[in-house]
């Protein structure tokens, strides 16, 4: 693993093996995660020999932005980062009244196969290490020159399909010797991998869980999300109820509105019936059109009336502001554009792509 992925105890172990002392392991953690240093030579309170050995055994560097797009509408910035093996991932920086938020990717590609999503089109390449997820937050913070107060794991990939590295990311982000970000300022979005939701509930974290619903009946959800064939809605909602009971954190249900597909009166009735009586929150997202798909956004009027209908049923609803619409908003689109360009250049397709078997 890369050096940024390790917990302090593990760094202490690494430093010990290099003949160092425990406090130097803690210093190393602070250099990496509090000061976010990308060069061992800056770690001036560590012995020179140790710095050189670290450099040899655990090469360190910032993620390098290959492309940055800035929204003329709201200042949202989208970054395309190259990882050390050449894989590319996207991160998005958004400025809200309550602080600056970075949306990070958890995998290069994705194997979940949701019909409306650009990230999944080439399948999964690999999960990111915690260091690569943290690296996105640090690199974006550095680029914008402002503190990052919120992190949402809603970029490319399925975070619960990269569970161990996700946990490391959350724990290191909130570590008091690191950024010390409140877990209440973190959100993890999942398509609904039920056993992992139970695992997450047992971790005693304070993060918000966002569940991608997009359909309020099994039939409708299965049309859009292959994972729904594996876990019926009843099981998904039960798992979310359990998460709420264990953590006291209200679930956010994400519902992307697609014209004529899941935005009718009957759909809203089904959605209300499914969630009624629950202490939860629905986030309606006008679907972001993806070039390769013909899904269209629900009309503005329909979006507004969907919200009203759900509210009449006593459900707490917000409409997601469309940040950075003018800059290839939907996750995965910037990466795909670059891949296409590369494919054209090398005249070869993607390599090592993986697809989930339930497709
Ligand atoms: N794999 C995770 C997180 C990634 S995407 C998940 O499924 O939740 C974050 C959210 O954006 C999910 O709710 C996802 O379904 C949604 N999404 C993906 N593509 C979209 C698009 N083109 N328009 C609107 N929402 C989209």
- The termini sit apart by 31 Å
Instruction: Please give the share of residues in helix.
Output: 25-40%
Query: Taking Cα atoms only, what radius of gyration do you get, to the nearest Å?
Result: 21 Å
Shape: globular
Ligands: S-adenosyl-L-homocysteine
Mean pLDDT: 92
**Which structural class should the secondary elements be placed in?**
alpha/beta
Describe the largest sheet: 10 strands, mixed
Order of strands in the sheet with most strands: 1-2-3-4-7-8-9-10-11-12
What's the count of strands? Answer: 12
Helix and strand pattern? HHHEEEEEEHEHEHEHHEHEHEH
Number of helices: 11
Beta-strand content bin: 15-25%
Low-pLDDT segments: 347-359
Descriptive report:
The protein has 359 residues and is of the alpha/beta class. The chain is 35% helix and 18% strand. The strands form 2 sheets. It has a 10-stranded mixed beta sheet. Strands 5-6 form a two-stranded antiparallel ribbon. Helix 5 links the parallel strand 7 (150-153) and strand 8 (186-190). Helix 1 (8-17) packs across helix 2. The longest helix has 15 residues, at 130-144. The protein binds S-adenosyl-L-homocysteine. S-adenosyl-L-homocysteine is lined by residues 112, 114, 116-117, 154, 158, 189-191, 212, 254, 256, 285, 287-288, 290, 330-331. Residues 112, 114, 116-117, 154, 158, 189-191, 212, 254, 256, 285, 287-288, 290, 330-331 line the site of S-adenosyl-L-homocysteine.
């Amino acid at each position: 693993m890369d050096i940024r992925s390790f917990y302090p105890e593990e760094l202490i172990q690494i430093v010990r093996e290099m003949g160092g002392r425990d406090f130097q392991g803690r210093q190393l953690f602070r250099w990496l995660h509090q000061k976010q240093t990308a060069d061992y030579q800056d770690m001036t309170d560590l012995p020179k020999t140790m710095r050189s050995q670290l450099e040899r055994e655990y090469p360190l560097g910032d993620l390098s932005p290959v492309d940055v797009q800035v929204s003329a509408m709201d200042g949202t910035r989208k970054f395309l980062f190259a990882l050390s093996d050449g894989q590319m991932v996207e991160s998005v920086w958004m400025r809200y009244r309550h602080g600056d938020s970075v949306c990070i990717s958890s995998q290069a590609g994705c194997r979940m196969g949701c019909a409306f999503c650009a990230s999944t089109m080439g399948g999964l390449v690999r999960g990111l290490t915690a260091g690569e997820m943290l690296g996105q937050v640090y690199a974006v913070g550095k680029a914008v020159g402002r503190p990052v107060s919120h992190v949402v794991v809603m970029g490319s990939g399925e975070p619960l399909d990269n569970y161990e590295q996700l946990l490391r990311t959350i724990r290191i982000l909130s570590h008091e010797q690191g950024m010390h970000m409140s877990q209440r300022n973190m959100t993890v979005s999942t398509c609904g991998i039920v056993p992992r939701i139970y695992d997450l509930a047992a971790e005693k974290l304070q993060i918000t869980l966002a569940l991608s619903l997009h359909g309020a009946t099994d039939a409708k959800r299965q049309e859009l999300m292959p994972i729904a064939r594996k876990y019926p809605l009843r099981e998904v909602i039960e798992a979310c109820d359990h998460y709420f009971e264990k953590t006291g954190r209200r679930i956010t249900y994400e519902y992307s509105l697609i014209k004529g597909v899941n935005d009718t009166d009957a759909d809203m009735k089904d959605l209300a019936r499914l969630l009624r009586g629950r202490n939860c929150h629905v986030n309606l997202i006008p679907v972001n059109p993806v070039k390769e798909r013909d899904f269209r956004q629900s009309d503005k009027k329909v979006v507004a009336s969907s919200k009203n209908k759900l509210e009449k049923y006593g459900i707490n609803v917000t409409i997601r502001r469309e940040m950075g619409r003018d800059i290839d908003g939907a996750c995965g689109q910037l990466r795909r554009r670059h891949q296409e360009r590369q494919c054209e250049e090398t005249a070869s397709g993607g390599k090592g792509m993986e697809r989930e078997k339930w497709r």
